[in-house]
TrEMBL record:
<dbReference type="Pfam" id="PF04134">
    <property type="entry name" value="DCC1-like"/>
</dbReference>
<protein>
    <submittedName>
        <fullName>Thiol-disulfide oxidoreductase DCC family protein</fullName>
    </submittedName>
</protein>
<dbReference type="InterPro" id="IPR007263">
    <property type="entry name" value="DCC1-like"/>
</dbReference>
<dbReference type="InterPro" id="IPR052927">
    <property type="entry name" value="DCC_oxidoreductase"/>
</dbReference>
<dbReference type="GO" id="GO:0015035">
    <property type="term" value="F:protein-disulfide reductase activity"/>
</dbReference>
């Protein structure tokens, strides 16, 4: 298995982002679980992700990455021109995360949220971990 992306399963923007990644990951490198799921919570505990982290989390090569570091590492693996975004990794994480934190704070207000996690289509359901 490649890497696991933990995402906010009730966030409309986060669900759209997962769909975006799936379309640009034809080899199925990424697998997915919601932060709210038991599996997601067990990974957060296993990798000692701080409880105040309410962001995208990438589990890759026995390490957890979150916020912009996770997003940039994901971009690096996509079959898309977005790979060039990984070059922003040279910007210190505290600087990058200022913008991420602002966006994360207002994502429900701007994009809304669902009462439950999305149900993936059958053809990609196997990439979602419970």
């Amino acid at each position: 298995m490649g890497a696991i992306i933990l995402f906010d399963g009730v966030c409309n923007f986060c669900n759209s982002s997962v769909q975006f990644i799936i379309k640009r990951d034809p080899n199925g490198y990424f697998h997915y679980a919601s932060l709210q799921s038991e599996f997601g919570q067990s990974l957060l505990n296993k990798y000692k992700v701080p409880s105040n982290v309410n962001s995208l989390v990438l589990i890759e090569k026995n390490a957890a990455y979150f916020k912009t570091t996770a997003a940039l590492r994901i971009c690096k693996k996509l079959n898309s021109p977005l790979k060039w975004l990984y070059s922003f990794i040279v910007v210190p994480a505290p600087v990058r995360n200022v913008f991420y934190n602002i966006f994360a704070k207002y994502r429900y207000k701007w994009f809304g949220k669902n009462e439950s996690c999305m149900l993936p289509p059958p053809e990609i359901r196997k990439r979602f971990l419970s």
